[in-house]
Amino acid sequence: SPMRRPTTALVVIAALVVAVALALRTNASTTDEGTTASSAPSATTAPTSPSSTAPTTSSSLPEATIPSPGVPACDLYDEIVVTGSVESTVLVEASGLAVSRTANDVLWSHNDSRGDASLFAFDRTGSDLGTFAIPDAFAIDWEDMAAGPDATGSMPYLYVGDIGDNFGIRAGVINVWRVPDLDPRELTDAFPESVALVYRMPDGPYDAEALFVDPLEPALYIVSKDRDQAFVFKGSLESTGTTQDMELVATLFLGGEVSGADITPDGQIIAFRGYDTVWMWNRLPGQSIAEALLAEPCTAPSPDERQGESIAFGDRWGYYTISEGTTPAINYVPSGR
Length: 337
What we know:
mainly beta; four-stranded antiparallel beta sheet; 21 strands; 32% strand
């Protein structure tokens, strides 16, 4: 299981984190090899073989649009373009990144463990479009964010994961904040509302820095950060008003830590990123995320960044990355198809 590093100095913080998380009004809903480790914590794991055809039952997933059948996802990319640099000097630890599904020229990001519960908006050149508070939210260790639908597959939202746990102090309880995906030019200084989704990780605390929302199922996925293996967890997006248990669906051995993740808006390509690697998987029609991750990933272009922890897909399978630090460059890897 992942390394746990509890420290007595943070026990008090841990207790406060758990107490506040459970007290909140919630609408909780719940990569080199794709094999499941026999030593993984007790939970439902990935199926033993992938399916290349869509199930025939009424619960089958929608079919993704395939850019070129049989072509590895990584073959779509061959260059890295710098589109600009982040203008805001307040965004200094850009740990997560998302491309708006409402205004596709807008990127969203957030600070890591520094700053308040706010999101930063900018365009692909880095021009500052404003900083917007998330009402009723708190920021302890925000690590990643994603754009995606709600549990019904409609209504675009932004999801921000307070999922980091470097010292194993959170008792396995994490928070994901959901806000409507609005054009920042129509906002004033804050989002109109937020929903706190609270999850309980199986088998205690995990440190995680990667989150994405599958638009086809739909469901939330969190990927742990560990040098030896990456645990992939699935959570429901339903608003039940209770703390929901996450399910372990895959264990991957990538040879590096996963610091960010995303999926294309059509659900066709899954990407995890490390500090110097971008891993990708094709998702065949009808496949679940767990089934797609059983395949061996390919590696796509990875921009040279000082501490790159974010990745986000835009239109037509192109993806953006930025690094932590002041006024980082915005790197874009366009699709050649």
